[in-house]
Amino acid sequence: MVPSRSGCIISTASVAGAMGGLRPHAYTASKHAIVGLTKNKACELGRYGIRVNCISPFGVATSMLIDAWSGHEEDGEGMDFGSSPCEEDVEKIEELVKGLANLKANLKGATLKAKDIAEAALFLASDESKYVSGHNLVVDGGYTTSKNCVGL
């Protein structure tokens, strides 16, 4: 990218990198680090025409989220999916995420899907965002605008 004096780097952070109170602590710290690294790399690489941004999504029913939730079964906060979740389990997680979003996010009537995050990445990679660099694009339905700390 440096020799061609152009390019775009997009990292995935999380709403955990935009607020406190989410657990586990190592995950939250790593997402804050990604946001900071994004800003530093944007400063460093901007002179070469390289844009650096990150996306911070709210909860999306992905295999990572399913694995994370199933990993807390012992403390009563997770769900037991056995060795691999089936389609019904994924739908259950999607319903839980949708319910949480409707309770917590400001934007009502929409549910965040993995496709929405992909579309945000496409925007950041496109010429439509040619002057956007060092930005943390939070895709959370307004969740972080009203919540600055989540009680554990």
From TrEMBL:
Gene behind this protein: LOC110753843
Top-level taxon of the source organism: Eukaryota
Cited SUPFAM superfamilies: NAD(P)-binding Rossmann-fold domains (SSF51735)
InterPro entries per the UniProt record, alphabetical: NAD(P)-bd_dom_sf (IPR036291), SDR_fam (IPR002347)
Protein name: Short-chain dehydrogenase reductase 2a-like
Source organism of the structure: Prunus avium (Cherry)
Family the entry assigns: Belongs to the short-chain dehydrogenases/reductases (SDR) family.
Membrane-spanning intervals of the chain: none
Coiled-coil blocks: 86-120
Origin organism lineage: Eukaryota, Viridiplantae, Streptophyta, Embryophyta, Tracheophyta
Keywords, sorted A to Z: Coiled coil, Oxidoreductase
GO molecular function: oxidoreductase activity
